[in-house]
Amino acid sequence: MNSIQTQTEAERPAASPAPLTVQGLSVAYQKKPVLRNVSFEAREGELIGVIGPNGAGKSTLMKAALGLIPSLGGEVKVYGKPYKQQRKLIGYVPQRESVDWDFPTNALDVVLMGRYGHLGWFRRPGAKEKAIAMEALGKVGMADFAGRQISQLSGGQQQRVFLARALAQDARLYFMDEPFAGVDAATEKAIITLLQELKLQGKTVIVVHHDLATVQDYFDSVLLLNVELQAYGPTEQTFTQQNLQRTYGGRLAFLDRSLPSQPPGGGGGE
Amino acid sequence: MDQIWSMLSDPNMQWIFLGCTLLGLSSGVIGCFSYLRKQSLMGDTLAHAALPGICIAFMLTGVKSIGLFLIGAGAAGLIATFGIGYITRHSRLKQDAAMGIVLSGFFGLGIVLLTLIQHGDYGNQSGLDKFLFGQAASMIGSDVLTMSIVCALLITACTLLFKQFKIISFDPGFARGIGYPVAFLEQLLMLLIVVAVVAGIQAVGVVLVAALLITPAVSARYWTDRLGLMVVLSGLFGAASGAVGTWISASVSNLPTGPVTVLAATLLFGVSVLFGPKRGLVAKRLMRRKVKQRFNRESDPLAQSHVKKKEAAL
């Protein structure tokens, strides 16, 4: 694990700083540490999956990196500067369950919220913002639902509205908190297409992910987390049975045959 | 009809009428956001917390003035919200329980202070107990002026910060992510609610003032799926309740304005629950019946052919 970190450190070209650098990040709720001394560096233009068991601190890592929750210590830099100065470069897709979908608003209006960060304090979104929002809705295949009250959308459609809102933010670094959770096949496909497109545009996307079976298909790099960072690096070398065993401990029900063959052992003795 | 005009020709009545309408309007507008933020009970807590604040402001200065009471009530409301925040953060209690504790604690203190004032020798303390249930009839020109300023302030704030209040009501996490000072905006919204509550206490009283925040907002939600329209409707419903409340209490002798205003708002709520398009009970019933009829019609030929097959088999 350490060797991977030092390797990325060395690889970094001095001229262009990495999209995200996390150094020694720790977070605790009450007295319980949820995240302990996590350090990693995201490479530009990669799709990065954050994997770990429930309560491993995946969402917490994302929220702390975004400055949504206070951290005990550590440093987060976005393109070489504190995230507070770089907010316009960051797009965020929270968990779908985090809001009340019975709110009196429609799909287009939610997507327009992605433009608020670019608007002045008292300015209302105008024609230009609406055009950007409609384009974003089109990209996730939701253009026909622009005027639909959000509670009338299916779970997958709601998730796509959230993605469209992040697209409308026109960011360079995206954080997505379980975008695949509980969505239909059409939405899953739409999200994956979108992720690929973002990657082609050179954007960096960090995704909290639950479905181990799709990790190898979706992500360039994978970050295994269980309170502490367990492993981080290119999916091929990092998404191994040994690393998963260490991350999930005895709780791992998923022992896929398609994993890179490596002698079981090491963390298996728990 | 003549009665309305004769009532409105009385200058005293005009003040009360105007005051109650403005109060309903501003409470309705600001109430939308507290309802959507699932803090309907916050208004009630702030109102009850205002009582000791008003009493202490009076005990310290010996003056009865809306401006001073606003400061006292505002300070008490602030302490109450911090109290609720502290309890929810540092105990296992949920917010509703914390609000219940703070609300009754402050109200108890308020009643004790009110009794102390009543038995003290301030000379001008009479009328302070009217804050419990309100007395719109005691409103005078200067009160209505204060009310107008408060109303203009609330509506201006909600118009200018509509975008901000919308996003912190819908998705505060995202709002924080794009750099909005969510904690500041939440405190500001709370402050505006305190202002609305304190402005309403004189007319409607500590016990009922929260109704003007909640009821028009909930009623408006039944008529629209758009926040902008909901806020406008809620303001209009509140204003109409205030106007109707004043009118009824003026035409029927000795009916108190505040409670009648609240009843008018509740009646509007009843109408909304029944007849709101899409969400209303009647609309839902009709929709169900339509779906059922269509289902029956579509499945009918199938059923008939099924019966025929059975007959043929026999």
Protein model, in words:
The complex is a heterodimer of chains A (270) and B (314). Residues 1-13 and 261-270 of chain A have low confidence and may be disordered. The two termini of chain A are 20 Å apart. Chain A contains 9 helices and 10 strands. Chain A has a domain at 43-56 and 85-250: P-loop containing nucleotide triphosphate hydrolases (Rossmann fold), CATH 3.40.50. By secondary structure, chain A is α/β, with parallel strands linked by helices. Chain A is globular, with a radius of gyration of 19 Å. In chain A, α4 crosses α5 and α5 runs parallel beside α6 (185-200). Chain B has 314 residues and is mainly α. Chain B has a domain at 12-216: ABC transporter involved in vitamin B12 uptake, BtuC (Orthogonal Bundle). Chain B is built from 14 helices and no strands. In chain B, α2 packs antiparallel against α12. Chain B: InterPro entries: ABC_BtuC-like, ABC_TroCD. Chain B: The chain crosses the membrane at residues 15-36, 41-60, 66-87, 99-117, 137-162, 174-195, 201-220, 227-248, 260-282. Chain B: This is Manganese transport system membrane protein MntC. Chain B: It is a multi-pass membrane protein. Chain B: Keywords: Cell membrane, Membrane, Transmembrane, Transmembrane helix, Transport.
Short description:
The complex is a heterodimer of chains A (270) and B (314). Chain A has 270 residues and is an alpha/beta fold.
